Amino acid sequence: MPRLSKYLAVFALIAATTATTAQAEPEQSPPESPARLSRDQLAAGWIQLFDGETLFGWRATSDANWRVEHGTIVVDAGEPGWLMSTVDWADYELHVEFKAPPETNSGVFLRSTSNPTDPARDCIEVNIAPRENPFPTASLVGRMRVSTTPQPLIDGYAAIHEGEIRTIGPPPQEIDAWDGRWHSFDIEAKGDKLRLKLDGRPLETQSLDVVDDASATPRRGRIGLQFREGAVAFRNVRLRPLRLEPIFNGRDLSGWNTDHAEASEFSVTPEGELHIVNGRGQIESDASYGDFVLQLECFVNGEGLNSGVFFRSIPREFTNGYESQINNVVVDGDPTKPADCGTGGIYRRVSARVVNARDRAWFAKTIVATGPAIAVWVDGLQTTAWTDDRPPHDNPRNGLRTAPGTLSLQGHDPTTDIRFRNLRIAELPPAK
Fold first, then answer.
1. Going by fewer Cβ within 10 Å, which terminus of the chain is more open, N or C?
2. CA separation (Å) from 50 to 55, 370, 383, 404?
3. What pLDDT is recorded for position 173?
4. Distance between CA 237 and CA 235 in Å, rounded?
5. How far apart are CA 72 and CA 379, in angstroms?
6. In 269-403, at which residue ranges do the beta strands (DSSP E only) sit?
């Protein structure tokens, strides 16, 4: 049985057997998801871009034989191209593990267009390439070259000289990224800075604007895995968004309005949580957001309760926005069959592929909106990858809205008893 299927079966069993005891143990965590992220990682904002079983959340740009084998993404034949994320990212930490024969030429693409043509301008390419390549593994193609021979250190930092990055710590041949074994990139992309570690060892701490034209550093774009020459495998692809700012201070409702509270009641708990009871009603952000990354944590204090996170809403109108559903009810105990769109789905548009949360337990949610593309993660597992291909309309209920709009948290009905905490958001810079 596939690992995700095993998890779903276990999830259903646990949900059934703990239903009577969950109220007595409200802080009990849900079972570990196939994303294999710890509760500490989830609290820090990490999500899994690859679930270990499927290519959900990725889109191939060419006819190559991308597939999943033994918990890894593999490709070894077909037309050169990429496996691209369906949404853009700007500032983040990214962990990727890769394995390739020494002759393979591949790469991890950052802030990329959907079909990049110039790695020095429309993306940032962290290369996976032979030792004799002009940009061997861990180089930034068209930007910086990693030396494959021992180099002296300068004050413990990478010394940049004549276009080369000189390594920090032991020389790269002691790592030997060309041995056909598993290796890892840890990448921090933040503004015009990029920091890279190969197998945990830092390689570069300088600004990307060491290139002649600083404007050639993209500010946002897709994440891509490349197939070019030779076999390559990837696993444990995970990401943590950076530069998210709090939008709820944990003390009062500053920055939010209750113009459409109606029957709902909103308060701040002694623990600093935003508490919503009763309904129908909404609490709405004063600020508007267009393309963004939003992260929050939610606690559903009851069985089968209903709520939602609305975004790109028409300001000061009642729930006229896209709705990321909160509803953990499933059919016949099967988390792959949400009863009412499912937590992480986009209500009335696309159901969550799996309900990866349960009532009376804190869960994390990440919502990314970039143009018409929307993606949602629940406890690190991607539940939704949807592109709104409807004709444009001011009201997202009736068509595509990419214009900025407000956020709203919903009081659904008189049974509503929902808590939110750690609400934080990052607006994405304009795409080039």
1. N
2. 7, 19, 12, 29
3. 58
4. 6
5. 21
6. 274-277, 281-289, 292-300, 307-313, 322-326, 330-331, 334-338, 363-370, 373-378, 381-387
pTM across the whole model: 0.88
Listed as ranges, residues in the chain with pLDDT below 50 are 1, 3, 7-35, 151-169, 205-213
What pLDDT does residue 255 have? Answer: 98
Q: How far apart are CA 247 and CA 250, in angstroms?
A: 9
- Of 228, 217, 220, 173, nearest to 198 by C-alpha is 173
- Return left, alpha or beta for 298; rule: phi > 0 is left, psi -120 to 50 is alpha, else beta: beta
What confidence score (pLDDT) does residue 5 get?
53
The pLDDT, as a whole number, for residue 149 is 59
Q: List all residues 6 or more positions away from 408 whose beta carbon is below 8 Å from its beta carbon.
A: 282, 283, 284, 285, 309, 310, 311, 313, 319, 321
Q: How many residues does the chain have?
A: 432
Tokens of 62: 């060419």
Report the DSSP pairing between strands 274-277 and 417-427: antiparallel
Dist CA 42 CA 379 (whole Å): 7
* 28-33 own/partner pairs: CB under 8 Å, 24+ apart: 28/360, 28/361, 29/361, 29/362, 30/356, 30/357, 30/358, 30/361, 30/363, 30/379, 31/7, 33/7, 33/356, 33/379, 33/380, 33/381
- What is the residue type of 185? F
The rounded distance, in Å, linking the Cα atoms of 291 and 340 is 26
Alpha-carbon distance of 221 to 112, in angstroms, equals 4
At 355 the pLDDT is 98
| Cα R_g (the chain), whole angstroms | 23
